[in-house]
UniProtKB/TrEMBL annotation:
Residues that span the membrane, as ranges: 31-50, 57-76, 82-103
SUPFAM superfamilies, A to Z: Multidrug resistance efflux transporter EmrE
Membrane topology: Multi-pass membrane protein
Keyword annotations of the record: Cell membrane, Membrane, Transmembrane, Transmembrane helix, Transport
One cellular-component annotation, GO: plasma membrane
Protein name: Multidrug efflux SMR transporter
Gene Ontology MF terms: transmembrane transporter activity
Amino acid sequence: MSWVVLIIAGMLEAVWATALSASQGFKRWRPAVIFVLGLAGSMAGLAYAMTSIPTGTAYAIWVGIGASLTVLWGVITGKERASVGRMLLLIMLVGCVVGLKVVS
């Protein structure tokens, strides 16, 4: 169950990071509210997962999921460029996250 919560928490990290950018420095209230809710859910999920998953592993997986999804969302929405090098690095990041789970 902790792994499922950790994955959801990582997804929420991407939500709050994207909402933070969309809030334009907290000038837009809807993305700001999504940011606060996403951040709270993400941190709560990470904290819960850390009760049974080693801290370093949980944190690395949480960050890896959040960073990967944030970049992918930027590429999908056209706000970031999808270069071959960038996509290869994302694949390596995901591979490292999966590797951490495998060896845990």
